[in-house]
Amino acid sequence: MNPRVGVGVFVINPKGQIVLGQRKSSHGAGTWALPGGHLEFNESFEDCAAREVLEETGLKVRDIQFLTATNDIMKEEEKHYVTVFVGYSAVDGKAKLIDLTLEAVGWYPKGTGDLRLLVTPIFVAGDESGDLVVSSLR
C-alpha cells in the first residue's frame, strides 16, 4: 500500500486558542484532531489546508505557513501517512460544525494537550477538568 499525504492545520486565534474537531469516522474515531485532510492531485499544502479548514469549520484562512512533517505508519490499521503540519493565525471568526465526518468542532484553550501535538495529531478526552491529553505517541 502506498503512503497517503495528509495536511493538519493549527488554527490559532488571538486568545491563543486552537481549533480541534472530534473524529466520527476513519482512523481515530472519537478522538480529537486538528482540521485537515488528504492532499488532492496537483494541490499545494497551503491550498489543501485552506480547503479543509473551510469545509470542516467554515473559517477562511490564508498566509498559511509550513511547520513540520511526520511519517506515520499504523501497522494495525495497515495505513501509512506522511502528514504535513501547517499553521495559521486567525484574526477572528467562529468555528462551527460543517463537516459531517466530525462529531464536534470548536476553539480550545492554549493549554489543551501538550507540545507533543506537533508529532501526534490524535487525541482523546482527558480527565474531569475537560483538558485533552495525547492518547499515544508514534
Radius of gyration: 14 Å
Quaternary form: single chain
How big a fraction of the residues is strand?
35-45%
Major pleated sheet? 4 strands, mixed
Order of helices and strands: EEEEHEEEEE
The name of the CATH superfamily reads Nucleoside Triphosphate Pyrophosphohydrolase
- Please state the average pLDDT score: 73
What is the SS-derived class?
Answer: mainly beta
Biggest sheet strand order reads 4-1-6-5
- Indicate the CATH class: Alpha Beta
Report helical residue fraction: under 10%
Model regions low in confidence, pLDDT < 50 over at least 5 residues: 114-138
Number of strand elements: 9
**Number of helical segments with 4 or more residues:** 1
Under the CATH scheme, the architecture is Alpha-Beta Complex
In a few lines, what is going on in this structure?
Helices cover 9% and strands 39% of the residues. The chain is mainly β and 138 residues long. Residues 114-138 have low confidence and may be disordered.
Could you outline the blueprint of secondary structure elements for this entry?
Layout: E1 4-12, E2 18-23, E3 32-33, E4 36-38, H1 45-57, E5 65-74, E6 79-89, E7 102-108, E8 123-125, E9 132-134
Parallel strand pairs: 1-6
Antiparallel strand pairs: 1-4, 2-3, 2-7, 5-6, 8-9
Domain Nudix hydrolase: 2-138
Organism: Aspergillus niger
GO molecular function: 8-oxo-7,8-dihydrodeoxyguanosine triphosphate pyrophosphatase activity
